[in-house]
Every structure is written in C-alpha cells, then in structure tokens.
Design goal:
This protein is of the alpha/beta class. It is built from seven helices and 14 strands. The strands form three sheets. A seven-stranded mixed beta sheet has the order 1-2-3-4-5-6-7, with helices on one face. A five-stranded mixed beta sheet has the order 8-9-10-11-12, with no helix packed on it. Strands 13-14 form a two-stranded antiparallel sheet. Helix 4 packs antiparallel against helix 5 and helix 6 packs across helix 7. The structure holds zinc ion.
Length: 292
C-alpha cells in the first residue's frame, strides 16, 4: 500500500473559534485575536482556577480588542476582576507580547516562565523563573511544568492534575502542525518532547492554537508519525545522490501544500536536515545537502 503524503491533514487556515469558551469549572479560553496561517484564529489564552483570583496561562500578542475581552471573560468566570499571576509556555511574541497590556489593566502581577535570555524582554516585565517539575498552584488547580524544548528552547507544557489535562502551548496544536524554526528550534529535541508527553496519563489537551483535543494520545502519535514520514520523504528526495537545496526538496515532497506556504515548508525541511546531520546521516555543502 502506498504511504500517505502526510499524516496530519487538517490545518489552521479558515478555522473559527469563539472569543470566550468555558471548558470546565476551572478552565476557560479567551481568544487572543492575532489570526494567521500558523496561529489560526489567534492564540488561546487560558483562565485557570476556581477562586476569585485565577491565573492567566499565556497572554496573547497584545491586540487591542483583547484588553476588552479579558475582563469580560474574568467576570463570567469568577465575578471578580482580579488575576493572581501570568504563567507562560514560551517567549514567542504571540504568547508573552500581551503581558504589558495585561499588567496595565491588572497591575504588576507576577510572570512565571522558564527564562530565555534575549527573548524574555518582549514581556516588558521581570520574570520569575520556573523550570521542569515546578508546581504552580492556584485555588482549584495544580499545574506541573514539563520542559518540552524543540519548538522553542524555553518551552514548558503544564499538566493540570485535577483534569489529567495538558496545556501544550505550541508543542501540540488543535489543528495542523507546529513550526520548528530552523534557527532556534531543534527537531531532535522536539521529537523527544513528544515522546515524553506520550508517557503522561492524559484525558485532554488544551493547545495554544485551535480547538481542545479530546483524543490526546492519538494526536501525539499522529504528530510523531507525521515527522517520521517527512523524514523518510527528505531522505528519499536525496536518494539518487544529487545534492539539493532545501527548497528543491520542498518542491519534491510538499506537492499538496499551497505555494505561499513553501517558505515555511523550507524552514521545516532545514530542521529535518539539521536533525539528520546531527545524526550523521546527511552532509551539507554550500547550502546543498546530500546523503552521507
Ligand atoms: Zn511559539
């Protein structure tokens, strides 16, 4: 039987989500309203906790309309207009760019994340450092941080013990696949992070983009299978011995992906090539790559 061309077939493009959604007694989403081909309708920011002062998990990009949506959502959840702290998955601008806006509205509340020197400045606020295994508690919710590098070196997922749920940030998305930047990302680490998440007892995933995932194990397995398939395709593209540039590989294997996404695909191919080079399986000569 012929292998499929991709394993993850859905995408973020055209996806719609409500401004506010209540998922459980302790979790609600407020949409960040920063839409795009890779963010879908925008970043999901999460209000977590059952008390008067819940926490905010990720702060969005700082889009003006969010400043109105967040207080509305808080009123619906806790009847008070207070936040205890902000907890962040990673330092990309669509996750921490909204922190100055949130602090303008709610005061200089504490910001927790794993530090990424040189990037955390986007938050415009001091960072309280946490790392793998750290526990963040709030009334009604216990979050355990899990270091999951690959998409970004500082990336933390958070396991919500009361629901056996995982806030995956950008490691696993509700639709499509995540970008592994070829400069600051690391596909080898990303695959190890996905395998680590598979070991958790998971009932659902709250992703940073796209809808809630109700089949978490299957989704993570699809993500792993998708990258493994792409890796085989990259190796096959190089099999006849001719050294190729990443974009030439894209033209061979991303035949069903629209051309305006080919730059992103090329980034992804470079991430695959770097992983394979680290494993001694391909070599680079003057921007062209061949099998080792
Ligand atoms: Zn990101």
């Amino acid at each position: 039987m012929a292998e499929p061309r991709r394993v993850v077939n859905d995408s973020m493009i055209g996806l719609k989500l409500p401004d506010f959604a209540r998922h459980s007694v302790r979790v609600a989403t407020v949409l960040g309203h920063n839409p795009g081909p890779f963010t879908g309708p925008g970043t999901n920011t999460y209000i977590v906790g059952t008390g008067r002062r819940p926490l905010l998990l990720d702060a969005g990009a700082g889009v003006p309309v969010y400043e109105k949506l967040l207080p509305h959502a808080l009123k619906a959840v806790s009847s008070a207009l207070e936040l205890e702290r902000v907890v962040c998955t990673h330092a990309h601008a669509d996750h921490i760019g909204g922190i100055p806006q949130v602090q303008r509205r709610f005061g200089a509340i504490e910001v927790l994340k794993q530090p990424w020197p040189g990037k955390d400045e986007i938050a415009g606020a001091p960072i309280s450092a946490i790392g793998d295994g750290a526990t963040v508690t709030i009334e009604g919710a216990t979050l355990r941080a899990i270091h999951t590098p690959g998409h970004a070196p500082d990336h933390l997922c958070y396991y919500l013990e009361e629901e056996r749920a995982l806030f995956t940030g950008d490691v696993v998305l509700g639709a499509g696949t995540t970008v592994i930047p070829d400069d600051t990302g690391d596909l080898g680490q990303y695959m190890a992070s996905l395998r680590r998440l598979l070991e958790l007892d998971l009932a659902l995933i709250y992703p940073a983009h796209g809808p809630v995932i109700r089949n978490p194990r299957q989704k993570i397995q699809e993500y792993i299978a998708h990258r493994e398939l792409r890796e085989r395709q990259v190796l096959e593209a190089l099999a006849n011995g001719e050294p190729l540039e990443p974009m030439q590989i894209v033209k061979k294997i991303y035949v069903d992906v629209p051309e305006y996404l080919h730059n992103a695909a090329s980034n992804s191919v470079r991430s695959h090539l770097k992983k394979l080079r680290n494993e001694g399986r391909v070599v680079e000569h003057a921007s062209r790559w061949s099998l080792n």
